[in-house]
Specification:
27% of the residues lie in helices and 41% in strands. With 137 residues, it is of the alpha+beta class. The strands form two sheets. A four-stranded antiparallel beta sheet has the order 3-2-5-6, with no helix packed on it. A three-stranded mixed beta sheet has the order 4-1-7. β5 and β6 form a beta hairpin. It is rod-shaped.
Length: 137
């Protein structure tokens, strides 16, 4: 009788260890599925005062849309704007930025290398310094 109870006890302990291990595995996989979070920092510099709106579309290599951000700046944009984004995974993505300003809109495309919990700076100051197409300074 004692032999049977020792067997049951070992079996219950092993069952409990298996359940705890399975839960730990599911939690680990679930956390990994949540993606990589990063911050896109748009740097407008002094030209921010001319910006009336900005739109950012982020795409994966497959062409699938990953993130979208749009904001109006009736009184001009600040020197920089931080955008929190959750990506499906770490890796390479493409950001397409559309800036509305007097004259003509500005379209800029940048490649992003995403790592978890990083800030990715997109410096737009040089692009904004050039006059819009068809406008001379």
């Amino acid at each position: 009788m004692s032999e049977r109870s020792r067997y049951d006890r070992v079996r219950r302990i092993l069952g409990l260890v298996a359940v705890v291990g399975a839960i730990a595995l599911l939690v680990r996989q679930g956390c990994g599925a949540s993606g990589s979070s990063a911050t896109l920092r748009l740097r407008f510099g002094d030209a921010g005062g001319e910006i009336r709106s900005v739109r950012v579309d982020v795409f994966a290599d497959s062409g699938d849309s990953v993130a979208f951000y749009q904001r109006a700046f009736p009184s001009g944009a600040p020197e920089r704007v931080d955008i929190p984004v959750t990506f499906p995974a770490e890796g390479e993505y493409r950001a397409e930025v559309l800036i509305e300003r007097p004259g003509a809109p500005l379209r800029v495309t940048r490649t992003l290398l995403v790592e978890d919990d990083t800030t990715i700076s997109i410096d737009l100051q040089e692009s904004l310094a050039a006059p819009p197409a068809g406008v001379s300074r």
